[in-house]
Amino acid sequence: MPDRFVSISDRVYRLLLLAYPAEFRRAYGPEMAQVFRDRCREERRHGQRARMLLWLHTLADLAATAPGEHMQTLFQEFRNGLGAGFLTVALLTLGAAPAVNYM
Questions:
Q1: How far apart (Å, rounded) are the C-alpha atoms in residues 27 and 37?
Q2: Alpha carbon distances (Å) from 38 to 34, 58, 64, 75
Q3: Could you tell me which residues come within 8 angstroms of residue 21 by beta carbon, excluding any fewer than 6 positions away?
């Protein structure tokens, strides 16, 4: 049944989107899911090999991009929050370290 592939793939893909940060999912998740569904519909016409390649590319993309998005989120939180204070203390400590060695 051709629609079964699209339906199951869509459900699995939406679960995989949980690998991305929540803010990223809110901003891009619906569009990403729509593009994936469209690709599934297209690839189901080209046979099993095309469907397997779609999933291989999808999983490779997820493995490559999700960690980077988490790093971006952490960096942004660091810049906007506690990180500014931490960075100031770290720089002051590093700046003071050479002076302590000369005492």
A1: 18
A2: 6, 13, 22, 33
A3: 69, 70, 72, 73
**What is the pTM assigned to this prediction?**
0.72
Residue 6 scores a pLDDT above 50: yes
- What's the pLDDT tens digit per position in 47-76? 999 999 999 999 999 999 999 998 888 888
Residues 6+ apart with CB under 8 A from 100: none
Cβ neighbours of residue 72 under 8 Å, at least 6 residues apart? 21
The DSSP call for residue 81 is S
More confident residue, 12 or 92: 12
76 and 23 in contact (C-beta within 8 Å)?
no
Separation CA 30–CA 60 (nearest Å):
20
Residue with tokens 């679960």: 15
**Matching residue, tokens 């002051």:** 92
